């Protein structure tokens, strides 16, 4: 500390004023982030990948009597999926059903809100653990902003998916490890419980343990007794998972072994497609909006070279290598480590400052960063207010507005048939029926008749004298039809049939 004109007291006053200013900014960021997460949880209905629906919603729907066993995915018969997520959805239905608020869409929103809250907590704890360790106020602010406002991380943060929940729980455990510093035995056991819960949501999270536990022993110099306590917590939650699986499947099963047996030993996973080892690099570069996507690849490589003792390197490297080795690859398989991206980025910034001083101050780099935040803001607005799957909004419209007997006809495509049929979002009174042409369309007595289509020719025949009740592409958006993009866009329309259309001329 250097004595200024007014002495130490004046210097401290300035520093405290600046500290208060920064804390005020962080409070505003936290408030804005909380609003953003809640808004995204509300609007981002649906799923990123259909497994997010079939292995949670339909599995729980079976326990609730909404889905028949024969309509469940093959993983159910193989008894290979952990039951904790269907269990949580089942409990939510029972609890909210006491106050008649158990519609499937309300429950899906509750789960997204839970996911958002858990993600928010993990971000807060990671910031608390590392904010004082980051060099420079600009990097500190960058860390906070990236943690809360990275567009694809926000989208993933509200997903009630195994990748997101398991990943966030691991981040929480890691952040608490840093915050607690010199851990006692009770704290090691608590960390084990959180890690065990992470494993229950996604068995592949064990790949994160592969690096973390050796780091604790060889680099952090944790005692063997402490690691045993950590493992005890994991094993205890593993036992809880077996009990939940017993409730769900109706018999004692070891879904962890079944998962390994089906996907690895029997190579069922490979049947969904094989990709080369470098698949993830290509996907991250393309999906992350190049050239900005380099910010999600380069930081880890810098840490791997210059800070190999960093726990993030030990945690993430085995996780990546194992996923590189496994033949079937999907980008979502890496989502459990998304929460670490902001920390990787700022630590890489520190390395650049140390090794190549001045680069972060270059005009071209500042322009690059500015453009990054502009595109991030655009995509953030997009994901915050758009449904993750637009057809779920169709299901909600029909569910909310047609509680009486209803038949939905279709010719080309069934809106309730995806990779598998959707039952969780259907009322029992709704019957979905295929017809070969409009000649087969009928208006039964005491039954509402709907017609669903994603075909423009079918719509042209049915829209005369019938009311459109759902359009996945808002009419006002069609006004901005530059380069005729509307004609190339796939969207669903649902009509309530009051008058039979003219006979099909085809």
Account of the protein in words:
The protein has 506 residues and is mostly helical. The protein folds into two domains: 379 residues, no CATH class; 107 residues, no CATH class. The chain is 59% helix and 5% strand. The chain is built from 20 helices and five strands. Strands 2-1-3-5-4 form a five-stranded mixed β-sheet, covered by helices on one side. Helix 1 packs antiparallel against helix 5. The longest helix is centred in the first third of the chain and has 37 residues. It is globular and about 75 Å long.
How would you summarize the topology of this molecule?
Layout: H1 7-43, H2 51-64, H3 74-78, H4 84-97, H5 104-130, H6 137-149, H7 151-157, H8 162-180, H9 185-201, H10 206-218, H11 224-249, H12 255-265, H13 279-287, H14 298-306, H15 311-325, H16 341-355, H17 363-385, H18 390-401, E1 406-410, E2 430-434, E3 448-453, H19 456-462, E4 467-471, H20 475-478, E5 493-496
Parallel strand pairs: 1-2, 1-3
Antiparallel strand pairs: 3-5, 4-5
Helix pairs in contact: 1-5, 1-6, 2-4, 4-5, 5-8, 6-16, 7-17, 8-9, 9-11, 10-15, 14-16
Biggest beta sheet summary? 5 strands, mixed
Shape label: globular
Helical content stands at 55-70%
Q: What is the element string, with H for helices and E for strands?
A: HHHHHHHHHHHHHHHHHHEEEHEHE
Beta percentage is: under 5%
Tell me the count of domains.
2
Q: What's a concise summary of this model?
A:
Helices cover 59% and strands 5% of the residues. With 506 residues, it is mainly alpha-helical.
